[in-house]
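Hey forum,

I'm writing up a methods section and want to include a predicted complex as supplementary material. The small molecule is zinc ion. I've pasted the protein sequence and the SMILES. Can someone with a working setup run it? I'll credit the forum in the acknowledgements.
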Amino acid sequence: MIEQRIPEKRGIAFRIDDGDTFEVIDPRGRQVADLVAFNADAPTERFSSKYSYRRNSKVRITTGDTLYTTEGREILTIIEDDCGVHDLLYAPCNHWVLDDYYDQPDENGCRENLSEALAPLNVGEELVHSTLNIFMKSTIAEQTYIDIREPVSEPGDTVKFCAEQDAFVAISSCAGESVVNAGETKPIDVCVPDGTEVHANF
Ligand SMILES: [Zn+2]
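Reply by user p_vandermeer:
Happy to help. Structure tokens for the complex are below, copy them as they are.
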């Protein structure tokens, strides 16, 4: 495996073959990593958080659970998970989310960082919308209101995924200087199979 560090507020993208695995690691703890995945042969088919919670019948997924596409097909399965608390409810942060909610004008959010990393794979920003927010803790109050809490991930916590089809995957270290990352943005580490070409926006 190759270990690639994503510096704070940046992103990477890579191709993963059906049956191969990769890991996402929170080296310092309490840092969110946004993940998107695409059918490598037809990237308009892509990970869907809505169909993932429809197929899993729950809004929080962990070991043994599968991520599904916009066509309802399997794309990734979580095969190991040290943390167990990840978010499927929120869309990725982006420039206007950072401006409107986090007082961070004129900055790349996860959507821009994922899109820039995916550009060499010819996946356009219009397809980057639905993310699994690894290590992000969201809550639902009164069966209605969603809210963001500090992550519970400890330093070194790892989530391991297995590809269920040939896929493009992109991962960002979330840029929000807020409770979402416990007030401080930090790096994320990713381990990919030997020989994988990693595209980065840094
Ligand atoms: Zn983010």
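Some notes you might quote in the supplement: The mean pLDDT is 97. Helices lie at 49-56, 95-102, 110-118.
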